[in-house]
Amino acid sequence: MREPYFNLIDEPWIPIADVGRVSLRQIFSESSFHALGGNPVQKIALTKLLLAIAQAACTPEDEDAWRTLGTDGLAKHCLAYLEKWHTHFYLYGEKPFLQMPQIAQAATQSIGAVLPEIATGNTTVLNAIQTQSPLSDADKAILIVQLMGFGLGGKKTDNAIVLSADYLGKTNDKGKPSTGKAGTSIGFMGFLHHFLIGETLQDTLWLNLFTKEQIAFMPYTAGLGVAPWEIMPEGEQCEQAKQLQNSLMGRLIPLSRFCLLNEDGLHYSEGITHLSYKDGMIDPSVAVNFSGKDAKVLWVDTERRPWRFLTAMLSFMSAGSSGFDCFHLTLGLPRARRTHLNQMGLWSGGLRVSSNAGEQYCSGSDDFVESVIFFNNADLGEYWYHELKQEMTDLDQLAKQVYGATMGYFKSQKSEGKNEAAQASQLFWQLAERQFQSLINACGVGKAQTDVLRHTFAHYASLSYSTYCPKDTARQLDAWAANLPKFNTYLKNTHVNNTQPEANV
Prior knowledge:
Helix content is 37%, strand content 10%. It has helices at residues 24-29, 40-57, 63-84, 137-150, 201-207, 212-215, 239-245, 248-252, 310-313, 327-330, 332-336, 382-411, 418-433, 436-442, 447-468, 474-483, 488-491, and strands at residues 14-16, 20-22, 108-109, 193-197, 257-262, 265-270, 288-289, 296-297, 343-351, 354-356, 359-361, 368-376. Strands 3-6-5 form a 3-stranded antiparallel β-sheet, with helices on one face. A 3-stranded antiparallel β-sheet has the order 4-9-12. A hairpin with a 6-residue loop joins strand 7 (288-289) and strand 8.
């Protein structure tokens, strides 16, 4: 057996925005790092790993203990924990990090075959990003962490290899190896994940750290659980696997794939199967609404940026309201408001995927999405939330006006117009996104600020209509004027300037 090497605690492998690669030890010893780098899925997977380390190192009893712990205290506990478990963080060796040597009999898959952004098989390559290239040890470490929750469903998993005796979860009705299930953290179409963020990465980990008191109210019957690198499962249904299925640790590091790196790629099979949100089990970073007959979850929507879901995610701020719950928000935000932090934020992101006959892939409009929103701590409250909700409701009406006006323009010229109407509405939302952070801030200041923004948004709506409804000919000019959207209702009672916004491009 080759000597273990590339220890994740010592070697630089984690991407940090505006810095480069750093080690796990640096994450907890240097407080200047602001945010993770990489694509949204990598950010989610790495955040979950760092939170799993933090929870294993120090899970405070209650809110008072959490506040006393602070960012610095958490970092010190994590450094001590990493030193204690140093030998369990080697990427290669007898006990490779988050890998299963027992799965070595499974067929080898190429690295590109298990990455959603890489084109394999007969998929058309559109740009260089989609081509497979050799991965460094640092990239392979990220890959392993990512595959624990974000492995795509399909035939790429070798489910002929079963480690737990009498386990039938990898067998279909005909007794043959089944198609691999979607990873716990991605689901059918791609879950939208959410985390509170602070000024530094260490602040972010502290803000999202759960207490024992909070975990007791979550649906994880096994409580916090044991980190998988401390005790790896022996199979799909062993005692450790069952513990991961029912614990918070198992939702942070779900081990949905059993992997083992080799020189040609990796041995790859389906791992532990977890209950879905329909069964009442969720990742703490996923927002689910359990108030109706059937549970509903927020999926990634490439045509609807994550910030547009903000009021749905924060519905718990309105008394008596029932809506989407995300543990990092419902349990973390009220607690964070009682800290010394002047500003905190919300990161949302994920990957949209398609499915066909059990095979998951990225195609067409599927893509990564992410957005970052910051809040002033002093502004947060029910009044702020209701102001924001009203503004978002009215913005949605503006988008519908743009759509309807564009449709009317093309119908008056005996044309279809659906594609143009959808594009005009989408352009409006793209323009509105530029001012969304200003809108969040304005809702905590007063009507004078939102009045100014209403005129800006009305101008964006008019601009979007005119972009897709030209007025170059006399006929076009008649249609343009006849269907020009009016914003009198939207601008009513504003005190900036009641003049209709200019509609020219």
